[in-house]
C-alpha cells in the first residue's frame, strides 16, 4: 500500500490551486482529506481543476460555497465505487446542465444534479429544491437529483413531495406553480418526465438514514434499478 504521507505535498498544492489560497476555508475543510483518501477523486479533481477553481471563485457567499462542497463530496463518494465513471459539467461549464454525467459498469450514461436544501422559509420541505431544478434536466438522458440536507435527523423521504407535485400537475394547478416561479402545470409535468429519481442525502446521518430515494416509474428514460441501488450505496458510505 502506498504511503499516504507521500501524497501530502501534492494534495496541498492541488488544494491551494483549487481554492486559490494556502488553505481552504471552513466550508471546504474536508477537501484535503477526501483527496488523500481517494486516488480516483484526486485524479478527477486534477482533470477538472479549471472548472472547479472557476466554480469556487464564483461562489463568494458561504451558502454558495457549501453548494460546491456538496457537489465535490458527492463526486468523491461516487468515485469510491470503481464501477462508476464520472464526468464534470459534460454539458459545458456555466450552462444550466446537470453537474455530473455518470456511467455505471460502462452502461448508458445518466446525469446527476446536486443541490442543497437551503435554510429559510419552508426549509423543512424538499419541494423548493426539487422545483428549482426541474428546468435544468435535459430530455435526452436519465436524470437523478440529489438533495443534500443538513442536520442529524437523517434524510427525509422525497416520495410524498413528488406525489403531491404530480397530483397538482395532473389537476393543472397552474396558480400553485406560477407562485413558485414555474410556467405552470404543463412545464412541471414535462420536468417530472425527465426526472428518473430524487435522492435525499444526509451526510451527517448514520446508516440507512443517510439516504432515501423516490424512483419515477413514469420517467421518459428510467434509471435501471441496479444503477440506482449502487448510487444509493455510494452515497450512504461513511
Order of strands in the sheet with most strands: 1-2-3-4-5-6
Could you list the spans in which at least 5 consecutive residues all have pLDDT below 50? 1-6
Report the oligomer. Answer: single chain
**Share of helix, binned:** 40-55%
- Tell me the number of helical segments per DSSP (H or I, 4 or more residues long): 10
> Major beta sheet, specifics?
6 strands, mixed
C-alpha termini separation:
21 Å
| Percentage of residues in strands | 15-25%
Q: Helices and strands: which structural class?
A: alpha/beta
SS elements, strand count: 6
Tell me the Rg in angstroms: 18 Å
Shape: globular
Element order: H for helix, E for strand: HHHHHEEEHEHHHEEH
Mean pLDDT: 90
Describe this structure in words.
By secondary structure, the protein is α/β, with parallel strands linked by helices. 42% of the residues lie in helices and 15% in strands. It is built from ten helices and six strands; from the N terminus they run H-H-H-H-H-E-E-E-H-E-H-H-H-E-E-H. A six-stranded mixed beta sheet has the order 1-2-3-4-5-6. Helix 1 packs across helix 2 and helix 7 crosses helix 9.
